[in-house]
Structures are given as structure tokens and as C-alpha cells.
TrEMBL record:
<feature type="binding site">
    <location>
        <position position="658"/>
    </location>
    <ligand>
        <name>Zn(2+) 2</name>
    </ligand>
</feature>
<dbReference type="InterPro" id="IPR006276">
    <property type="entry name" value="Cobalamin-indep_Met_synthase"/>
</dbReference>
<keyword id="KW-0808">Transferase</keyword>
<comment type="function">
    <text>Catalyzes the transfer of a methyl group from 5-methyltetrahydrofolate to homocysteine resulting in methionine formation.</text>
</comment>
<dbReference type="InterPro" id="IPR038071">
    <property type="entry name" value="UROD/MetE-like_sf"/>
</dbReference>
<feature type="binding site">
    <location>
        <position position="499"/>
    </location>
    <ligand>
        <name>L-homocysteine</name>
    </ligand>
</feature>
<feature type="binding site">
    <location>
        <position position="658"/>
    </location>
    <ligand>
        <name>Zn(2+)</name>
    </ligand>
</feature>
<feature type="binding site">
    <location>
        <position position="614"/>
    </location>
    <ligand>
        <name>L-methionine</name>
    </ligand>
</feature>
<feature type="binding site">
    <location>
        <position position="21"/>
    </location>
    <ligand>
        <name>5-methyltetrahydropteroyltri-L-glutamate</name>
    </ligand>
</feature>
<dbReference type="Pfam" id="PF01717">
    <property type="entry name" value="Meth_synt_2"/>
</dbReference>
<dbReference type="InterPro" id="IPR002629">
    <property type="entry name" value="Met_Synth_C/arc"/>
</dbReference>
<dbReference type="InterPro" id="IPR013215">
    <property type="entry name" value="Cbl-indep_Met_Synth_N"/>
</dbReference>
<feature type="binding site">
    <location>
        <position position="741"/>
    </location>
    <ligand>
        <name>Zn(2+)</name>
    </ligand>
</feature>
<dbReference type="GO" id="GO:0032259">
    <property type="term" value="P:methylation"/>
</dbReference>
<feature type="active site" description="Proton donor">
    <location>
        <position position="709"/>
    </location>
</feature>
<feature type="binding site">
    <location>
        <position position="131"/>
    </location>
    <ligand>
        <name>5-methyltetrahydropteroyltri-L-glutamate</name>
    </ligand>
</feature>
<feature type="domain" description="Cobalamin-independent methionine synthase MetE N-terminal">
    <location>
        <begin position="7"/>
        <end position="321"/>
    </location>
</feature>
Amino acid sequence: MSQIPVATLGVPRIGRRRELKFALEAYWAGRISQAELLSAAARLREEHWLIQKAMGVTVIPSNDFSLYDHVLDTAVMVGAIPQRYGWDGAAVSLDTYFSMARGSQGRPAGCCHAEGEGVPALEMTKWFDTNYHYLVPEFSPDQEFRLVSTKPLDEFNEAKALGIHTRPMLVGPVSFLKLGKRTDGGDPLALLPRLVPVYAELLRRLAEAGAAWVQIDEPCLVLDLSQDEKRAYAFAYEALAAAGGPKLMLATYFGALGDNLPAAAVLPVAGLHLDLVREPEQLEPALSLLPENCVVSLGVVDGRNVWRADLAALLDRLTPVIASRPGRVELAPSCSLLHVPFDLALETSLDPELKSWLAFAVQKVEELVALSHGLTSGREAVQSLIDAASRALASRASSPRVHDPLVEGRLAGVTPEMARRSVPFSERRACQRERLKLPLFPTTTIGSFPQTAEVRKARAAHLRGEMSYVDYDAFLKRETEKAIRFQEEIGLDVLVHGEFERNDMVQYFGEQLSGFAVTRQSWVQSYGSRCVRPPIIYGDVSRPRPMTVGWARFAQSLTDKPVKGMLTGPVTMLQWSFPRDDVPRETVCRQIALALRDEVADLEAAGIAVIQIDEPALREGLPLRQADRSAYLDWAVECFRLASSGVKPETQIHTHMCYGEFNDIIDAIASMDADVISIETSRSRMELLKAFRVFRYPNDIGPGVFDIHSPRVPPLDEMAALLRKAKDGLDRRQIWVNPDCGLKTRAWEEVRSSLANMVFAARKLREEV
Ligand code: GLN
Ligand code: ZN
């Protein structure tokens, strides 16, 4: 039997050592030239192709690389470049590309806009249910498309010159349009007939260059689709088939095709990739519907998580599939490997046992290659690899680090009362007013104050062992005290300690909770040059000791004003980590909630009267399919309540969410029953509040009055006007005054002026009643 092909669908483009990040940032800072950036990018592509080839990958992708984002690349490729970027219709310059990605304010020489004028970037949003962000393509109603860049062709040729025959990867035309938006609010899919010819031309040119196959990603096929959308798929792929060109491997991922399967199975493509990790059950129905000669790409290794695969079980499962479709099966990860860290070998902070349970991108490729060998030449050929995987799995399944009977017992003992405050909000509000004695329109912030270079330097020095714990602690105390004095001076009503001790709102807790491991080198691209290191949740979660109480108590000891205790919520911690895959997500989330519940109790006992539990990721955890959403929201809300409901009525619970779109989840938000919720509303000019108004949201709300993403200091009158707009339709006693989000990325001078204006705006409103 000939070797079963192994595909990767895409590799982590940021590079083994985040080379792309450093090259981009050097270029943006003017330290390297465009030519240097481009050659760094070319070196990375070459390295990634060669690694894959050396490892035995037979279907090596090209065009999975991007300088910023592959959806942005697609927009540029087809000429979807909004007018504000001043594009002249010729080749798109790197500066235009990056101003679409990042806006052009503060761009160095070469930018056509006068200082300070600036052009906003395209909107950025999460890529399906991942923590990767893509740039949202923007179409005008009379949008024309044409092949403006030949990046896929260029990169195919680049690999060919290295002697590597690749399968170029494209974002499919239907998903591309569906992920974008039209400036007139119309249906972007109406533009499909104009877009398809551009794809057809590109495919023809790829075929001329010698491409045998193209991977065309249509992840929107796992979403709920209307009849019209299904028809759009038929239209697009019939047109592409008619145009001639390479064979198409239609890639779907992040879920099941479900009710779209019949429509997808009849598309005239030569191959279909299925995510068999998220939905193993879809293989058999797909096999029975797909035409005999269609190649099936089996996404059997988890591209979204870091756990080692069960090679023995996979071999059992795949053997009959291979036998039934000789020569028409490929092996692949469930989705592109973009979403996992590069190589486990780089990670030095994890102990060998935990490490033996993990597989990052490189290890996942090894798994796929081993499966291919085992299926082609018989198990014996890879017996030692199978055994090693089985041993690791057995050790993980029985490890006392994974299973903590105390945690499991406690979870089993959770009662509905534990997830309910002892009295309703109206009564709590009265007790809290009595205790806190806050003015109308109370002012506060979201938690973090500037993480200056000095703060980051001190942390790094402490981490390297160059600054003692005592000195580091003293430094953080001084910063905290400065923040408290600053807030008193400005006249804020509810203070925060400033979060100087936190490197990241999830990692900080991950470092302290049992069942979590944090990493040093395991970066995953979040957007552009920004990478995150999601903690790994490997076992039952518990809290060995208080995590934030010391800082809260210290900060409170400095002032008579209330200081908020600051926690990251259970859903956000789950969402921004790699969770275990041996129990349901909701179980992991409940365990985190119980650990936080203890923290909340300790904060209350330490005299902290206001506790904020941030849940900025609650919405992004929403399942992709409507039918799964209410079950998710039920447990997500329950977890928040479990964490927050153990306190007395006079303890005030806040929550915070940003980047919100609240209409479809407003009832879930209301049932979280936080005494106060702060949200990001300034950029929408309070539009997002509408959902709360319509719902008659009963508890208190702090609509953000200034954008923390911008260095701009908003004038007092602007914020006062926003507040007047906010109180319209809500009870003025419901309204808090705060920025959109934390201030960690801002400079102190901006923060000083913005917050001073904000406090004056609140005073002005008080005078107006
Ligand atoms: N408390 C956090 C901060 O102020 C909240 C950050 C967030 O919502 N992403 O930074
Ligand atoms: Zn926020």
C-alpha cells in the first residue's frame, strides 16, 4: 500500500522563537527596512516548509503564512481595500497593508496622512471560537473585486524553487464574504458573483504554475446556514469547478457539518476535510454521502488543544476507513496548527511527567506521521511510538495530579442555593448604599493602572533572579500606594489597587491554582505580532491558598475609600487556557468557580466591601451553533454565580465585560445578577446600552465613557454628553461612571487627564439632577 498522505493545513506562522513578531515590531519601530522584514518572512516560510518536509509531511501548505492575518491577505488579494486607505489601484504597499491592520496614526514617514489625523484600522474580531483575531473585510455596496496580489501564487513558486511542491491554502470565497461586512449593512454574499471570477482566475494561474491541489477553507460550513447560504456554496463551487484549475480540498473545521453535510457533500470538489476531534461522529455519515472518488481528509489530531493523541485507539478506528477507501484518505490535524504552540521541546518550565502528556505543533505532526506509517506498514513499524503514547495516556488517566477526590467531592455537593445570593438585588442595593455611602453616578475604574516599562522591567528582573523577592515586593507596594494616592487625589469613589503584580489576568491566577500549569515559551498568535501563553489546565482545580487577599488588604489599609478586590472569572479563565479534554468544559469551569468562591469569601472576611469578577470572555465562549448556546449560557452563568454568591448582601459584586455585543445574551447577563456590570460602550457612543434599556436591566451598570485603546484624552463635555445619553431610558441611580476597560496599556499622563475629566463629568451630572 502506498503511504497515506499527511497534511498539516497550516503551521504556526509566528515562528519557533516568535521571529515574525520581533521582525514586525522592529519594522514598525523603524529599526529594520522593508527588505529586511520581507527576507525574515521568507526565511520563516522556508524553515517551516523544510521542517515539515524533513518530518515526513507529504501535503505541505503554502500561503498559510501571513505578515499579519490571512483574512486581511485575502481582502488585499481581491482588492477589498476601503477608500480611506487611499489606495491608488496598483500593487498594495506594505504601509497600506499595515494601516488596514493597525490604523495609520503615528505611522512614520511614508504615510500620506498628516500627523494626528490617522486612519482607523479595519475592525478586528475573534476567529470563530478561538482566541485568534482576524481583520473584518469591509465591502462597499458597489464593491468590485480583482486579483490585486498574487501572494498565493508567489509563495507556491517560492516553495517550488526550494524543491517543495505545496498545496496552497486559500480562505474560501463564501466564508470570506460571510466573515466580512458591507458598509451599507447589506448582505455581503450578494457580492459573490463578482468575487468568484477572481478566485477562478487565481486557481487557473495556480494550475499553470503546477499546483495539483489547493486547500480552500470554508469554516463557515460548520455554522447555522440559511437556504440561501447553502445555495451560495453550490453557486460558488460549481463556478470554480467549471473554471478548471487544481483539485480543491474543501476544509471545514471547528465543528460538525451537521445539517450542512448534504449540501457540502454534493459540492463539486475533489476532497473534503472533516474535523473529527470536535465531531468524531460525522465521519460515517460523511463517508456514506460523499462520492466514491472524493478524497477524505481526516482531522483526527486536535489542532485546538495541547494533549497527546491516543495512537492505538486512532489506529483501530482508522484501519477500516483506510481499507474502505484505498488511495482516497489523508490524515490531518482537526484544523490548522496555528492555534497551538510551536514545539514542546522549547518548553523548559514543565516537569517531565506533565510534558509527557502534551503535544504541540511539531509533536502533532509526529503523531500524524506515525499514524500514517502504522496504517501503511502495519502497527509493528511504529510500535514503540504507540506504546509511548499509551503509557503517557495511562499515566495521565490515573495521576493523582489530575484527580483530586476533594475537588470532585466538593463539586458533587454543590447545591442550587450556593449559586444564589441570599436576598434579591433590591434589598442588596439598599444595604450596599447604606454601607458604601456613594454619591449618585459613582466613579471607578476597571482595575489595572499603567503597566509601565518600569513595572515590566522589575518583573523581568525578578523573574531572572536579579531582583530579590523582598525588593520586588517593596517595589510593587510603592506602585500600589502611588496608585491609591493618585485615585484619592483625582477624586474617584471606588478605588482599585492597580494590578501591578499581575503579568496577565489569567496567567496570574493560573500560577497560583492547583491543576493549572503555566508555560514560558509556549506562545500562540493572538493577532498580528501579539502572542499569548495560555495556561494548561491539566487536573482538578483548587486553590491552595488565598491569591489576591494580601494585595487587596494592603491597598485597603492605605485609604478610607472602598478598594475593589479584583478577580478573573471562571469562564474567562477557562476560555483563555488550554483546558483538559478528559472532562467536559463545564466541569473545569465549575471547579474554577469553587476556587474563586473561596477567594471571594476570604476577600470579604478581610473587609473588602466591593469585589469585581471580570468576565470579558463570556461571550466568546458561545458555541458556534444556536442550538448549543443556551446550555452553554446556563452553565457559564451558573459558574459566575457560584463564584460570586457566597457573600453577604452588603458586599457588592461587580463584573466587567468588554468588546460586547449584548443583544443576544442580555438575559444571561441579567441572570448573572452582579450588583454592578461595567461594559465597553464609548466607541459605540452608548449604542450597546440599548440592549440593557430594552431588557429593562434591573441592576447597576457602568457604561464605559472613554476608549482605553486610544491615547486621546476625551474632554469633559464629551463624557458628560455620553452619560446624559446613557441615563436616557435607564434610572439615573443605576449608572456608574468608568472607562471602557483597564488602563494597563496607557501612559500615566493620559490616565491622569482622562480620569480627571471623567470625575468632573460625573460631578456635572450630579449637579444636573
Ligand atoms: N481588570 C482587568 C483590567 O483592568 C480587566 C481586563 C479585561 O477586561 N480584559 O485590566
Ligand atoms: Zn475589559
